[in-house]
Amino acid sequence: MLLRHTTDKVKERKALTVNPAKTCQPVGAMYAALGIHGCLPHSHGSQGCCSYHRSALTRHYKEPVMAATSSFTEGSSVFGGQSNLLQAIGNIFQIYEPDIIAVHSTCLSETIGDDLGQIVTKAKTDGKIPEGKHVIQAPTPSYVGSHVTGYANMLEGIVKYFPTKTDKLINQINLLSGWVEPSDMKELKRIMGLMKINNVLLPDTSDVLDTPMTGKYAMYPKGGTTIPEMVSMGDSLHTLALGEWATNKAAIALDNSCKVAFTQEDLPIGIKATDRFIQALSKVAGVSVPESISDERGKLMDLITDMHQYLYGKRVALYGDPDQLIPLTEFLLDMDMKPVYIVSGTPGKKFEKRMSELLSERCPEAKFKNGPQADMFLMHQWIKEEGVDLLMGNTYGKYIARDENIPFVRMGFPILDRVGHSYFPTLGYMGGIRILEKMLNEIMNYQDATCPDEKVELTM
Ligand code: SF4
Questions:
Q1: So what's the pLDDT on residue 102?
Q2: Does the keyword Cytoplasm apply (predicted)?
Q3: CATH number listed for the domain at residues 25-161
């Protein structure tokens, strides 16, 4: 019993978080920056912060994640980190030769009041940024928000810097992606390819954090959104922003600066959210939906129909990021499952509203909460009050799954103890099939392992 101290008596907590359902802001900023081609993320803080951010990403993606640090000492903590960052910018361009440095702050540099914008401007006037090179920045104080906030802040920083409005409209769509896997980014591009839509996907971590073994080390892999692509976003026809928490700020910034109108949609997880995504794509790009995509939808519908008996009425507990939890909850409801417990460490008032809309009629017994006290401890307490048939979320749920003997599907960030997420998408109709396969595998494995001998079934 790894979590034997968890009690089933839920008490109101105001300041204490136990096993948070989130991680720190700069991890998200770093992940977003890695989705730009030729970009080196830079952590403005202590070496320890940078090591943690890098290792969190490396352990999930099983790829080396490069990033630089301002390497704060006691002196910088007292007198400010400006001189460290100025020196770092000069050194990085000279030694590592990136096209872009993406600087994010940390708890420490935010607390002492370092102004990243002012320091980057000084780096420019001091001649530390070579011609044709760029430094972008985003504030990521980790004592508020979560990794999703950091992702959103860096995406906003990118969009405020590169897209440029000219008088020439380009026949292309901007797709701002929320925090999803490289495999999902590839899937978004595949879908837009099937629909023959010219597009710029930002960020794009495919071919950055899922690179093939070639025998040669590439500090800047071939993937990532390029500078010309990002500049051209200011002249696009429309922006489609996927996942409100991660992309809304960037979509608004792009609309404000370049007057590119945007449509906000959920991440396309499950049937209905993917339907809305495909319809939105079709509308903003003025194209019809090809038969190949309708066929994929039909395959997912067929599988749901065939397997409904194993899913009906199953009680599910899930945790993670709001952008994923909202469409996933909708997907579970559409399969007549019961998402009874939902927590997210990422704050945001809309979470409660969206969850209420989804759950109040179709699963009125559901409990859901987000913000700092919506942690794994609370979820475990709810599970102890009344059990569930399935647990879905990142690797940290394995302790609850083990103690309570619950089938467990790994989804979200981070997944530290399994592979597959970098290669097999969970977005779109085909991604829906993957989610369904993962759920069914766990449910059927549990049934096979626990049912009496005379009930063992050879065939589904
Ligand atoms: S100190 Fe703040 S920025 Fe650094 S690792 Fe901890 S939470 Fe993240």
A1: 98
A2: no
A3: 3.40.50.1980
Model-level pTM? 0.97
**Residues lower than pLDDT 50 in the chain:** none
Pocket-testing residue among 50, 52, 53, 114, ligand 1, by greatest number of atoms within 8 A of Cβ? 52
Given this model, what pLDDT does residue 460 score? Answer: 84
Which residue's CA is the nearest one to ligand 1's atom 2? 107
Residue among 17, 22, 24, 46 to mutate when testing ligand 1 (max atoms within 8 A of CB): 24
φ/ψ (deg, to 5) at 238: -165, 160
Residue 404 gets which letter from DSSP? H
Dihedrals φ, ψ of 213, to 5°?
Answer: -75, 120
Atom 4 of ligand 1, residue of closest alpha carbon:
49
- Predicted confidence at residue 14, as pLDDT, reads 86
Cβ–ligand 1 distance for 106 under 6 Å, the answer yes
Question: What residue ranges do the domains of the chain occupy?
Answer: 25-161, 173-290, 292-454
- What is the rounded (10 degree) CA torsion for 405, 409, 412, 415? 70
Quick one: pLDDT at residue 254?
98
Alpha-carbon radius of gyration of the chain: 23
| Fold designation for 292-454 | Rossmann fold (3.40.50)
Fold agreement (25-161, 292-454): yes
- Cα–ligand 1 centroid distance for 397 (angstroms): 22
Q: Which CATH fold would you assign to the domain 173-290?
A: Rossmann fold (3.40.50)
Q: For residue 156, which of 242, 249, 265, 231 has the smallest C-alpha distance?
A: 249
